[in-house]
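Lecture notes, part 5. Sequence design as translation. It can be helpful to think of inverse folding as translation between two languages: the language of shapes and the language of residues. The source text, in structure tokens, appears below.
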């Protein structure tokens, strides 16, 4: 693309992260004549669709791969794969020197929240495993395209968690172990079939019982009650009666899951200290808790649990990017509607990195709302229903936030021809470095799922 042959608005926008949220913003902006450059750290752009959702979600994964592929192949979208912002390209430079009218962070949450017990991380690989690498290794094991990523299954695993992802970690254990035990008895099965039908039904079909398989299931230790497990969310401003219904729904959902996949849950238990033997983490001392006015209160009672492995699945947080201030575990956002950062007025954030919600639809909706409510208006290309988009940004005061931001920013000026030329040269160099020519050939080369 020659810089003097740019059609459309003349605006160039960078998007960091090519998955659900990033592809959504890129596609929306490209439809309105913006040239969008999507920087993705991995070779493939699918983010948590490929490396989060466990691989038994075959139909959903394929559908979402297709959605992302279509968006990233649109005219006006340029994919820049295997390029990590903060490692291969400096974030501050990208925002301030490259000449983009706006930069959108869509980089998700790829770091595991650390186990809240002092010194625990010293035992990573020595009894302690974190959820993100565990699920990534499980998902790639069958395909064999990440030979260095290994996951091990141990009967009686201790799982720290309580959310949907920790239930997936427990299911990976019971489903895969059942496949293995059935194979020993000459019965072929797979995790997809077991996940759909549930373990008891398949065992019944073969005249077997769970006890006969001899698998000790994993246990999820959760610091709150089953009623509080975030497997179903309560609507904003729900009254007492509605909350009770949601709680009952959670208990039903979790009960269905434990009876179909045969793992255990021990509620009201918070990790308190580590049990270390011969330099390995071999167990956890839990402290009993109670819930008072919605808060976790730690009690005097403690109890010890030993297990062959401890998998922590207590949430994912954004990976730090040099140049972006942190506030504890999270980016130091000025506001949680548009994900704006102090000192970077042209940066917006979309999806999981700012919503903190591990949910495909929530990431896509947030990306679309931020684009419509703010980015498109700032670039002077908005024509949709901005009020509705502001309404989608859930936090109260979103309208004032958006108005304030737009007033402060003024109207974006497209980059000059010289700046565009320099920017395209930089992109060309990055493409050359990784061997990228076009999306379809690149994806074939790096093992597209299609
Ligand atoms: C175990 C598990 C099970 C789940 N199950 C479900 C489910 O059943 N249903 C559901 O709706 N959701 C589920 N989710 C959550 C869902 O997959 C995610 O919330 C959603 O896909 C997030 O989309 P996103 O685009 O916001 O972020 P991501 O998918 O995380 O995308 C961020 C992208 O940015 C890239 N990136 C990160 N840092 C950089 C950088 N510095 N430079 C360049 N690129 C970068 C990443 O590689 C990634 O491609 C699950 C998640 C997990 C972990």
């Amino acid at each position: 693309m020659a810089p003097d042959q740019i059609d459309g608005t003349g605006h160039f926008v960078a998007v960091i992260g090519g998955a659900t949220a990033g592809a959504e913003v890129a596609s929306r902006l490209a439809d309105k004549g913006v040239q969008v450059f999507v920087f993705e750290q991995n070779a493939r752009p699918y983010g948590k669709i490929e490396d989060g959702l466990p691989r038994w979600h075959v139909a959903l994964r394929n559908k979402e791969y297709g959605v992302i592929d279509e968006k990233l192949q649109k005219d006006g979208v340029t994919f820049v794969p295997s390029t990590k912002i903060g490692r291969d390209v400096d974030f501050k430079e990208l925002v301030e020197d490259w000449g983009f009218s706006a930069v959108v962070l869509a980089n998700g949450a790829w770091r595991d929240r650390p186990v809240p017990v002092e010194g625990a991380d010293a035992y990573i690989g020595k009894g302690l495993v974190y959820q993100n690498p565990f699920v990534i290794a499980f998902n790639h094991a069958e395909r064999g395209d990440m030979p260095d990523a290994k996951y091990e299954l141990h009967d009686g695993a201790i799982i720290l968690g309580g959310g949907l992802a920790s239930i997936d970690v427990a299911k990976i254990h019971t489903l895969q172990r059942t496949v293995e035990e059935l194979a020993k008895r000459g019965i072929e099965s797979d995790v997809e079939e077991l996940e759909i039908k549930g373990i008891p039904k398949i065992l019944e079909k073969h005249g077997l019982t769970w006890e006969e398989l001899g698998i000790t299931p994993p246990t999820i230790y959760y610091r709150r009650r089953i009623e509080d497990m975030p497997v179903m969310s309560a609507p904003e401003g729900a009254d007492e009666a509605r909350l009770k219904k949601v709680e009952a729904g959670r208990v039903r959902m979790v009960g269905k899951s434990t009876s179909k996949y045969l793992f255990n849950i021990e509620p009201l238990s918070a990790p308190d200290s580590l049990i270390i033997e011969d330099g390995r983490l071999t167990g956890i001392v839990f402290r009993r808790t109670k819930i008072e006015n919605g808060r976790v209160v730690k009690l005097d009672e403690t109890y010890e649990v030993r297990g062959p492995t401890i998998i922590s699945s207590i949430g994912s947080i954004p990976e730090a990017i040099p140049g972006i201030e942190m506030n504890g575990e999270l980016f130091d956002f000025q506001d949680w509607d548009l994900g704006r950062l102090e000192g970077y007025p042209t940066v917006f954030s979309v999806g999981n990195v700012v919503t903190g919600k591990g949910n495909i639809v929530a990431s896509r909706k947030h990306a679309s709302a931020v684009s419509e409510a703010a980015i498109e208006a700032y670039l002077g290309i908005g024509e949709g229903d901005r009020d509705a988009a502001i309404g989608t940004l859930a936090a109260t005061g979103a309208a004032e936030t958006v108005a304030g931001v737009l007033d402060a920013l003024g109207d974006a000026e497209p980059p000059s021809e010289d700046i565009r030329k320099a920017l395209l040269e930089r992109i060309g160099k990055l493409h050359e470095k990784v061997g990228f020519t076009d999306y379809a050939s690149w994806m074939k080369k790096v093992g597209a799922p299609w």
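The translated text above is only one of many valid answers, since several sequences can fold into similar shapes. The pocket of flavin-adenine dinucleotide is lined by residues 16-22, 39-42, 45, 47-49, 52-54, 84-86, 106-108, 110, 135, 164-165, 168, 319, 321, 351-352, 358-361, 363 (CB under 6 Å).
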